[in-house]
Amino acid sequence: MKLQDELPTDHKLATVYRLGAAVCGGILLLFGSLGFADQLSFFNTTGAKVAGLSTNGLLSLISVLVGALLVAGAVVGGNVASTLNMTVGALFLLSGFVHIFILDRPANFLDFGMSNVIFSFVMGLVILTFGMYGRVTGGLPHDNPYWRRRHPEKAAREEARRSLAPLASADRVTGDGKRPSGPRG
Fold first, then answer.
1. For residue range 118-130, what is the model confidence (pLDDT) as tens digits?
2. For residue range 16-25, what is the model confidence (pLDDT) as tens digits?
3. Could you give the CA distance from residue 163 to residue 160 in angstroms, rounded to a whole number?
4. How far is CA 152 from the centre of its chain?
5. What is the rounded CA–CA span in Å between residue 36 and residue 61?
6. What's the whole-number mean pLDDT along residues 6-27?
7. 42 confidence band (pLDDT: 50, 70, 90)
8. Alpha helices, DSSP H only, in the chain?
9. Mind giving me the DSSP string for 141-165?
10. Beta bridge mates, 49
């Protein structure tokens, strides 16, 4: 089974996915653009700061590309935005962990500082949360489109039960139009 097989194609949660991708993508585009505006060297690791974060030209380029990707996902919306948010969020978290270990080492070619690591963790969690919202949990309500897609037999039984409920209450009405007073077995 593929992940996409479980996803409904049209649901009200798409607005959450779009909003998350657009806001986070906009923040990354702004950060990357400010780095380009400062005309930073591409591989400079001397500690140039933009918006309180260490950066260089390469990190600015990556920020602009990832921001544009998130904004494009927001334009497409739906399951694409959700899956993209989850993927990018996970990559941000992974980047935070990797950069913790290479701080103050020659391998730190993106010029990450501790503030960048914290930003990477926070942004990763925010993007990941937007992508997973209403999609991943053990207690999804039964009217959630993801629950219905994952449990089609149960959803069909509940739908049938709901459609038969008015008929069952109509059967309880007696011939004189009154409901019986006791429980029926």
1. 999 999 999 998 8
2. 888 889 999 9
3. 5
4. 24
5. 8
6. 78
7. confident
8. 14-37, 57-76, 78-102, 114-132, 145-150, 152-171
9. -TTSHHHHHH-HHHHHHHHHHHHHH
10. 54
